[in-house]
């Protein structure tokens, strides 16, 4: 057992010591920034944000470009480009896209600016050896690459914004950052913006004096005062009411808070770590979140990848949970681990932990031995490593139009793959079988595959 209570003997595959890093460059071909070259290196999941806004990796001066216009992401099959509901749209080689693969040499147009994608030589880069940061466990390359950054943020006093889908471990990470910081012995206080009714938000954050509102029978400290000397974790930051945002900003900038019903300012020494499931850049763009507060809180940013992108971590985490939840006498059944590894986990690590708890409670040790994989209730065995697509898209909590577009796009991708496979890759026959023109079929294929 390690000092964190994790048993590293449950690592199932040999740890990779290097990872192949892809390298791409985006070159601006026209306008005032012609010749500008922006390089992005990374592994699966690395992203490059393009737009006018200050959070963008490639900031364009084109007035027709949106604050956050589009994002390039390195995926297992190449670079995927997603238009982030920009006002003036994105095209690849003249074809308008919402989400599509971009190939070496393609021309991408964002509003009035043309970008040229150039692929460089991939190279092997060493991977850090650690498989955990505090209580946060994960031996996948994508997690191991995060830990050095986490350590640097923990040692600094910077505010940090943690982003990630539900159940990816944002709170676990916030606590680990606190525990690895010089504030470790002081309080770690959690304020969840979704758990407090709107009329009590201000007094929960900043405290209140007796009689300041109906029901305020006694004075009460707010979470800022409680966290004095330590760390305040603001969970679901995206849900913070707009009218409260300037008050929070003031507290952060001046290091002072005022209880509701008081006219005195109190000094507080608090480090803030915030988390969000929502895409806060998008909330800022839509005017639902103040950009000054966003930039005050997002000085350090950590994006926790979804569990489905953490290669090898499902088995490792499942075995750890199995032991921690009382299954230590019996090893976790191999076929159950296999089924867990095949599932997509839209609810991420939390869903995995619950599934292990359920398997233990229902005595799935015995069931798994009797039933062929896939016959058990949860989680369903998913063909080709995919879960329930609709559930998966629902878990992203996208607005209806974007969720619908994503569903259609995924469906089109699978359709094209399937029909091409049925016709041995022959586009003419595949298009005829699909009942659409060959030109349109080719556009669909270019949009969804690299072939
Ligand atoms: N890397 C990890 N190692 C071990 N346990 C983890 C890890 N990530 C998450 N967990 C466990 O998964 C559960 C959910 O984690 P947590 O509450 O931190 O997620 P979250 O991202 O904050 O979720 P939400 O967005 O719903 O608030 C907890 O039981 C936590 O202990």
TrEMBL record:
Keyword Transcription: yes
InterPro entries on file: AAA+_ATPase, AAA_lid_NorR, FHA_dom, Homeodomain-like_sf, HTH_Fis, P-loop_NTPase, Sigma_54_int, Sigma_54_int_dom_ATP-bd_1
Coiled-coil annotated residue ranges, if any: none
UniProt KW keywords: ATP-binding, DNA-binding, Nucleotide-binding, Transcription, Transcription regulation
Domain FHA per the UniProt entry, residue ranges: 48-97
Keyword field contains DNA-binding: yes
Domain Sigma-54 factor interaction: 136-361
PROSITE patterns according to UniProt: FHA_DOMAIN (PS50006), SIGMA54_INTERACT_1 (PS00675), SIGMA54_INTERACT_2 (PS00676), SIGMA54_INTERACT_3 (PS00688), SIGMA54_INTERACT_4 (PS50045)
Name used for this protein in its record: Sigma 54-interacting transcriptional regulator
Taxonomic path: Bacteria, Pseudomonadati, Myxococcota, Myxococcia, Myxococcales
